[in-house]
Amino acid sequence: MAVNLSTFNFKKLPWVCISALIVVVAVQFLFAFNPLLQDALFTFSEPSLSDPLRLDIFYKKAESSPQKKVFLIGTSQGREAFNASVLTERFDRKIGFYNMGSAAYSAIDFYMEIDRIIDAKPDLLVYMPYIGNFYLDYDFKRLKYYYNPKVLPFISKDIGTHVFLEKKWFIFDAYLSDALYFYKYREGLKPILFNVLDYMIFRLGKTVEPKYFRYDTSRGSEYFENQVRAFKGSKFYFSQYTDIEKQALQKVIDSIQKSKIPFIIIDGPVNPKIAGAYEFEVGTAYDEFLAEIADVNHVTFLSKADMPQFPSDQFIDFTHLNSAGRAKFTDFFAEYLQANYTQLLQE
Amino acid sequence: MLFNSYTFFIFFAIVYILYLLLKHKGQNTLLLVASYVFYGSWDWRFLSLILISTVVDYFCALKIENAIAPKIRKNFLALSMFTNLGILAIFKYYDFFTHSFAQFINVFGWNPEPRYLNLILPVGISFYTFQTMSYTIDVYYKKMKSTSRFMDFALYVAFFPQLVAGPIERARRLLPQILHPRTVTLDLFYEGCYLIYWGIFLKVFIADNLATLVDPVFDVSGPHNGIIVLISLYAFAFQIFCDFAGYSNIARGVSKCMGFDIMVNFNVPYFAKNPSDFWRRWHISLSTWLRDYLYIPLGGSKNGTLMTYRNLAITMFLGGLWHGASMTYVVWGIYQGVILIIHRLLRPFLASLDHISKYITKPVWGGLKIIFFFHVVIIGWLFFRARSVSDALVMMKAIFTNFKWDPSLNITFNLTLFIGFTWILIVVQFFQYKRKDLMVVYKAHPVVRTLFYIVTMLLIIIFGVTDGSEFIYFQF
Fold it and tell me: How much is the pLDDT for A9?
């Protein structure tokens, strides 16, 4: 029996698979670009798990909006701190405020996305960095959400090219994610599917309000004591990514300044009970870095000293404000904007 | 290198392209090198064990065939058995038996300090050991001729698609396919791709997602809620099936693409109506191996009822032990033996019950038998999956004594997840069973197939666990 390499002589293509593949691609394309479906995704999405997907939806909304717009960039800390609806109301609905806080959104992610952000032409960019952006390891699992190849030489310059070998599947995953919308945002789609199912079974016909925030209440002091014990002073630490994250923020600032978009860095409020969860030196280094980078680049910087005090019961944990804290912070920020940026935003 | 990893697909793509470019001899050499690379990717040191088994069985089979004196033939068979079982005993069972023995004599007040080897269990050792043993036994019983082509025999032992988790192929089936040129056709290629796809779906969508329902319940000590235990037990029944059948399908698919025909290892086992039927459908390559090389040599069912029961008990006990050096597997094996014996004992009575079908129709009666026996099977899975026999007993007790609806335990959510992850399998298996054809989807109407691919692709894309989690049977 001779070997017959007839695999190369395809007489007929697997049309069933090809048509299924076309449908699967088309469905994803529809969900990625149809505004109605995007709205539906947002409505059923969950803050935190669906954050990268919600961020993508915000970009698309903002890109097509003729209104003036303010982008509020940051992590989940920012997501919970800014109430975009209240801000919009305070500016008589003439300005669109987009709360783009996305869980664990680091300065490297910001750097990868900066071109897209600038292309969306915001009138003001507000960035609330998180201490964990600079004093934790970069989470490569999240690379796929914001991937831009320009990050590779940037990371390898500091850490070495071996990082590509170690993280090769995350990089591969990022490219795969660019091709498959559902695959890219699968972690965010799962809760959406469950919410849709729940709606169809139990709440059909009722109005569904999108969720903007995850936290409303506050935890007892026992929680914080346990957390401090559990972290043993190492919730944040100097990591091999600390310098890279700092450099990434510098590059972001360079790009923003080139685009002439006004830019504000605003330090995120933290729970007074956080002391003890990480070393004092880390906190000092972080505060100094923010002040310095803002000063060197002549960027507006709102430090904790510029803000009202936030007592422990206005937080759900160490870094996320609850509804009471959010109302206070939003009020402070609205007043700041009205005092300093009204002219710019209402021109 | 796992079947459900990107690395494997790149590896296979390279091997397959080269394979298609080569002639028969070159293909076999390529497959042997690829198989060693595949196995070495776990731990290259354990390649030495495969090589020892290969060399010993190759020479023993040649000597057995060429020797005329029965004693010499027997000696070489013994050498082969001693080597293979010796490796298995040292690497898999030594610590378990030493520990069990120490505990046993501890009962008599003697406290020995046993020495443990603490060896890492080589991946797939039970699979390839049984595979090579079948070769020398078959040559000994003159069921097949030995081969003088060492490289080809080495490929039979290490053939990568089924090396680490089976199916345990007999030399009678696989060796001729290695020795003779194979034909790769378009139909075989498509069939192979379908099997790979279905296997991946079973693993990454069903098995790995069900693990989220199983592990949190089985990996903690009680107290347990009976409903939660039952749901996780159902989930484990499907998890282990999809994990193992998924692997077997991928192994068959990869082989088929290269022109090999590997045996079917699972034939809708949860549609079995009794224990004998179950073992004709579950892990067929192991159950037939145990039947041919253990149960029948022990006497099978030829020496009276009692001896039959003894043979069944021994076979299933050793079948349980084959899975791993743990009391849970031993109890599982004994349980399987017991239900086989009880079924034989009750056979006349059970046959007399069949007249019920007159009142409720045959399909309904058949369905009831399937559902009843499925629950008999999952009791066995409880012991198989539990961390210890005592854990299994605690969980079983919870099913019977704490079967309460507790809203705080997300029972509805767990049940929804279970149904969500298994419905497609149940539908496919129903048609596979009804039509007596495992390729029923592959042969279905194009519209049905298109829908099947759309749904399964979307499920894999959104829910598939793609972090390359290990197959359960690798540990065996």
Answer: 53
Q: Which of A77-91, A176-190, A199-213, A319-333 has the lowest mean pLDDT?
A: A199-213
Cβ atoms B266, B244 nearer than 8 A? yes
Q: Does A53 fall in a domain?
A: yes
Higher confidence at residue B332 or residue B358? B332
The catalytic site residues of B sit at 323
Report the residue from B184, B449, B463 with minimal CB separation from A190. B463
* Mean pLDDT in residue range B45-52: 93
Cα B423 → chain centroid: 23
pLDDT band at A203 (very low <50, low <70, confident <90, very high): confident
State the alpha helices, DSSP H only, in A143-218: 143-146, 151-159, 162-166, 168-179, 181-184, 186-202
Planar angle of CA B437, B440, B443, nearest 5 degrees: 125
ipTM (interface pTM) = 0.85
Beta bridge partners of B380: none
Asked whether A345 and A69 are in contact (CB, 8 A), the reply is no
Give every strand in the sheet of A300-302, ordered side by side: A95-101, A68-74, A124-128, A263-266, A300-302
Q: Residue A245's domain is classified under what CATH number?
A: 3.40.50.1110
Q: Which of B25, B457, B466 to mutate to test the interface with A (most CBs of A within 10 A)?
A: B457
Chain B residues lying within 8 Å of A180, measured CB to CB: 461
SS3 content of chain B, % helix, strand, coil (to 5): 75, 0, 25
Q: Name the residue in chain A with its Cα closest to that of B189.
A: A7
Q: Which domain holds residue A303?
A: 15-346
Decide the pairing of beta strands A124-128 and A95-101: unpaired
Judge whether A3 lies within some domain.
Answer: no
How many residues are listed for chain A in this entry?
Answer: 347
Q: Which of B23, B452, B454 lies closest to A24 in CB terms?
A: B454
Q: Are B448 and A16 in contact (CB under 8 A)?
A: no
What total of structural domains would you count in chain A? 1
Query: How far, in Å, CA of B271 to CA of B366, rounded?
Result: 9
**Does A23 sit within 8 Å of B461, measured CB to CB?**
no
Whether the full predicted model's pTM is greater than 0.95, yes or no, is no
CA distances from B474 to A241, B247, B255 (A): 37, 10, 19
